[in-house]
Amino acid sequence: MSDLQVISLFAGKRPDGEDVVEQIRVKATDNNSFIVVQSPAFIQGLASGDEIAFDNKDNSFELLKHSGNLAIRIFARTKIDEMKDNLVGALEKLGGELDFSNERMMIFSIHVSCGFKEIEAILNRHIGEKTHSAWFYGNVYDPADGTTPLNWWLELDKEQ
Predict the structure, then answer these.
(1) How confident is the model over 10-22, as pLDDT tens digits?
(2) Global pTM value
(3) DSSP codes, the chain
């Protein structure tokens, strides 16, 4: 694999119709694809470790292979310092990794084998009305409706 690169991927449309493009860190593979290095903040359907094909003409991508990681996005109305300290420790104990944070957002990657119940119990303990925050999966539900599970993790079970 090659050195780290940054590519710009289409993430959606703003309310005014303008494109939203997010820069993500990737590593090029020997077969002209890329491995996502960190779960993105706004691009639906991707997580750290996923392999993609990239079309730089329109900043689109095709998911070639799931890594098994879940992308977890946390957004807050207030600063997240105290919540961050508690949450990072709890998710790291399960094998999770903090990919990005600023004063009002955190992005984590954690392998699906840790279990949805366990992951969600930790998130729900630390995130909610009390902390003026909310969490979302970035690659679990169909972006078209936001509720239909993609079920890509079922294929991982078959590969084991």
Answers:
(1) 998 999 999 999 9
(2) 0.92
(3) ---EEEEEEEEEE-TTS-EEEEEEEEEE-TTS-EEESS--SS-TT--TT-EEEEETTTTEEEEEE--SEEEEEEEESS--HHHHHHHHHHHHHTT-EEEEEETTEEEEEEEGGG-HHHHHHHHHHH-SGGGTEEEEESSSB-TTTS-SB--HHHHHHHH-
